[in-house]
Amino acid sequence: MYDDSADGLFALAGTIAGMVGGPVTIEDDASELITYSPGQEYSDEARVATILSRRVPDRYRPLLRSERLDVRLAGSSSPLYADFRDVRAPGVLPRAVMPIRVDDLSVGSIWAIVPAAPSREQRAALEESAALAAPVLARQIARRRGEEARRATAVRALLAGGAEAAEAAAELPLPPGPLTVVALRPMAPAPSGEPLRRALAGLSGLADGGVHAEADGAGYAVLPVRDEQRPARVVRELQDRAGLVAGVGRTVPAPDLLDRSRADADLVVRLLTRLGGTAGAAAHIRDVHLDALLMQTADLADEAGHDPLGAIADLERYDRERGTDLLDSLARYLAAGEDARLAARQLHVHPNTLRYRLRRAHEIAGLDLADPAAKFEIQLRLRLRALRHR
Q: What pLDDT score was predicted for residue 278?
């Protein structure tokens, strides 16, 4: 029997390495490092990076998807062999991989560096090792889930603001001073939730002292703001997270006002999601505040049964019924700074064709670009159209 202290886990890994005949790591179901054995001087760069970062680094994640290794691991009870040299990963040594299961649920895996496919004896050793590790990981996971549940309750109290937020901040390892809320939501559901968890963990590391939790399918981080550039650095970090939409709320001076920052962050996420796109997106509320207000205006108008588009809606309907492109031509012309030649090139038409379409837009919907006030109204309604819920 091994306990789940650091020493106990290290001893367990050492025992498994001796049984299998190669240095091992034990990881949980989210590829977070649980422990590792001695003898890693015979491993490779990927193993060293995993030990140093306490998780499998992002740059090695595609290897798990090669030959559907991650899917096979989740559904297997037997050792697997992964020779990553076959998937153009020079320098990454072959691994024997043993899923660890508890009550038919995959809770982690053992990764042993081996020179070749495991022998019958090594396979038997891996299966015995998984049986040794299973109760240890079960205790680890139960404790982790309990800690996560307690932290999530405290973070939800923070996000609600008020007196309860101040009490929660005192219980959490949250330094005093200005704070901001970051909201993260996947563009598409991920069965394991792993991209969200990894992004939240990375944010807390970046902020040096933040707390995070998942709630309602989204992730929230409360981060200390020690200088004015911190929120900008957070946004830059999140823009590299493909598949996630992130919003950063205003900075508030104390925990009791965190509900305002959370509302900002949620609003940014809703805005970026509505604007669409397949890549990761992130923004601070101050950089998209006007668009966020316009989106809310469009939503309020829709709820009240009003059409905020006015003559733009008339032109849109005309295009739909007759198969014309008057509205798109008008929008491109204004976006090009009223440069007819540039807009015509973008539309792949002659400038005279574009000018004709602009005259027709004026005749049909009364859109007068010569009047500065009318032109501003047209531009405002075009932006409302882009931000309406579709």
A: 46
3-state secondary structure of 113: strand
Helices (H) and strands (E) in the chain, counts: 15, 10
Under the banding of pLDDT at 50, 70 and 90, the label for residue 355 is very high
SS3 216: coil
Tokens representing 173 are 């390892």
**How many Cα atoms occupy the beta-carbon half-sphere of 265 within 13 Å?**
30
> What sign does the CA torsion over 248, 251, 252, 253 have?
positive
| Three-class DSSP category at 309 | coil
DSSP secondary structure letter of residue 368: -
Spell out the residues 6+ positions from residue 299 whose beta carbon is closer than 8 angstroms to its own: 388, 389
Give pTM, 2 decimals: 0.68
The count of other CB atoms within 10 Å of the CB of residue 173 is: 9
Structure tokens at 141: 């996971």
Distance between CA atoms of 295 and 275, rounded to whole angstroms? 10
Residue 371 CA to residue 362 CA, distance in Å, equals 12
The count of residues in the chain is 390
Sheet bearing 80-82, strands edge to edge: 33-36, 24-28, 105-113, 95-102, 80-82
Q: Quick one: 1 exposed, middle or buried, by C-beta within 10 A (0-12, 13-18, 19+)?
A: exposed
CA trace torsion 267, 268, 270, 273 (10° rounding): 180
Which of these, 227, 268, 264, lies nearest to 244 by C-alpha position? 268
